[in-house]
Design brief:
The chain is α/β, with parallel strands linked by helices and 244 residues long. It folds into two domains: 155 residues, 3-Layer(aba) Sandwich (Alpha/beta knot); 68 residues, Helicase, Ruva Protein, domain 3. It has a seven-stranded parallel sheet. Helix 1 links the parallel strand 1 and strand 2. Helix 1 packs parallel to helix 2, helix 5 packs across helix 7 and helix 8 packs parallel to helix 10. 35% of the residues are buried. Bound molecules: S-adenosyl-L-homocysteine. S-adenosyl-L-homocysteine binds next to helix 7. The site of S-adenosyl-L-homocysteine (SAH) has 19 residues, from helix 7.
Length: 244
């Protein structure tokens, strides 16, 4: 079982869908299920729909935020039935699975699925490096949640049979936590320097998130950026003091 791939379900309303997703995962040799604030779980409907995959439900991790669900991940793919304007690059399941499988199994990756009614919010997709859109009927393209899990896990299963592309990074990839620290630092710097007006933030932070999600910096690159921000902040303070 590829233990480094986790399936994340965000605020699922119907416990039956959680069970069906667990069954879909087990048929495709995946077993790490993370549930962000499920409406009802555990539940008899979940166990019934999981059929022989109740072991996945028993081991499922229940967390209260998407950040917790993505802890330690170096690559995150969200899934969306909708095409979105601003946000991560949208790929087909096959193309995105190729990217996920290129990550070495010592590192963690996640595929995130949204709520039955409204999918994922923009804030949530901005935590993803890519969005997976399953090509479907343009007039009726929203799959049942567990059916979408089945399509993606099937692609993961197929891709596992193709040899993995070794990572060429000499520094380990930045994790979700590393990036959140960088974003907080960037936001504070943007605010202090007047670039970001808290009363009218526009899309600055979303655009920066999208930029870095495309670039996928490694840990040492994040450290360079943070060092640079610190130095600039320090100089600015020195400069301000000099004016007094
Ligand atoms: N109205 C919602 C549909 C949610 S369907 C929306 O517009 O996003 C529930 C979840 O199933 C989605 O959040 C996504 O994770 C997955 N899903 C359904 N259809 C999909 C598709 N065509 N491509 C990718 N994911 C899909």
């Amino acid at each position: 079982m590829p233990r480094h791939i986790r399936i994340v379900l965000v605020e699922t309303s119907h416990p039956g869908n959680i069970g069906a997703a667990a069954r879909a995962m087990k048929t495709m040799c995946l077993d790490r299920l993370v549930l962000v604030n499920p409406l009802e779980f555990p539940h008899t409907d979940a166990s019934a729909r999981a059929s022989g995959a109740t072991d996945i439900l028993e081991r499922a991790q229940v967390v209260t935020s998407l950040d917790d669900a993505l802890a330690g991940c170096v690559l995150v793919a969200g899934t969306s039935a909708r095409q979105r304007n601003l946000g991560p690059t949208a790929l087909t399941p096959r193309a995105c699975v190729r990217k996920l499988m290129a990550v070495s199994p010592e590192q963690e990756v996640a595929v995130v699925f949204g709520r039955e009614r409204i999918g994922l919010t923009n804030e949530e997709t901005d935590r993803c490096h890519y969005l997976i859109h399953i090509p479907a009927n343009p007039e009726y393209g929203s799959l049942n949640l567990a059916a979408a899990v089945q399509v993606i896990t099937y692609e993961l299963m197929l891709a596992k049979q193709i040899s993995q592309i070794p990572s060429t990074y000499d520094s380990p990839s930045a994790t979700t936590e590393d990036m959140e620290i960088l974003y907080a630092h960037l936001e504070a710097t943007a605010r202090n320097s007047g670039v970001l007006d808290p009363a009218n933030p526009k899309h600055l932070m979303r655009r920066l998130r999208n930029l870095f999600n495309r670039a996928r910096p490694d840990k040492s690159e994040v450290n360079i950026l943070r060092g640079l921000l610190n130095a600039l902040q320090h100089n600015r303070h020195g400069h301000d003091r000099g004016k007094d």
